[in-house]
Each structure stands twice: as structure tokens, then as C-alpha cells.
Amino acid sequence: MAQYDRLSATLSALADPTRRAILARLALGETSVTDLAEPFAMSLPAVSKHLKVLERAGLIARGRKAQWRPCRLEAAPLEEISSWLEHYRRFWDQSLDRLADYLEARKDESDGERP
Q: pTM, whole model, 2 decimals?
């Protein structure tokens, strides 16, 4: 999948608060679908749909251990988002630093004009 397409799929998956809550739970370790569904006021099939979205985005993986089907977090797509956002963080840091310098210069100018 192209970088942008994967990024779009990841951001789209993260747009839903239920899916973000599922990822937060999986950050603690792998668990079953039933355990993941427990805190939500929705059916097991509804939770499974959320899991499919997360799986298509590469954010989770599902395994099979006998009768147990654990889900686990896959962090690589989150690192891709972090890298993508880093460019914008640097842009805003530099822009805000320039604004602070400008405002400080204006303050110094106005302080110099007072008797």
C-alpha cells in the first residue's frame, strides 16, 4: 500500500473513539475479542466490525491459540503517523518561535518610545 493510502487508512481508523479505546486496551497486552467488547454498550458483531477496520489499517493483528483468538496491537502504523506529524510539528515550532521573536521586538520598540 502506498504511504499516503496507508496513512489515510490509519487516520480514518483512529477517527472513531471506540477504536481508539480498543487500541488503548491493546497497548496493555493482547486480549480476546470478548474481553475487548466488555466495556462497550454494543454487540459483539459491532465490536468485530471495529476490529476489522483496525486490522485493515494494520493497527491490530489477530491470532489463534486453540479456542482463543487474541488481538494484539501493531505499532508500525502509529510510528508512520508520528513521523508524518513530525514535519508539521517542526513547522509550527519554527512559526511560533518567529512569532515570539516578533512580539518581543515589538514590545522592545514600544518600551523605547515611552518617556
A: 0.76
**If you count DSSP H runs as helices and E runs as strands, how many of each does the chain have, helices first?**
5, 3
Contact 32, 68 (CB under 8 A): yes
* pLDDT value, residue 86: 93
Separation of alpha carbons 93 and 3, rounded Å? 25
Q: Which domain holds residue 103?
A: 3-113
Q: Are 57 and 13 in contact (CB under 8 A)?
A: yes
CATH of residue 90's domain is 1.10.10.10
Q: Which pLDDT score, from 0 to 100, does residue 16 have?
A: 97
Number of structural domains found in the chain: 1
pLDDT (tens digit per residue) in 65-77:
777 789 999 999 9
Judge whether 54 and 88 are in contact, CB under 8 Å. no
Residue 22: pLDDT over 90: yes
**H or E stretch including 46?**
helix 44-56
Distance set, CA 25 to CA 37, 92, 101, 109 (Å): 11, 31, 43, 54
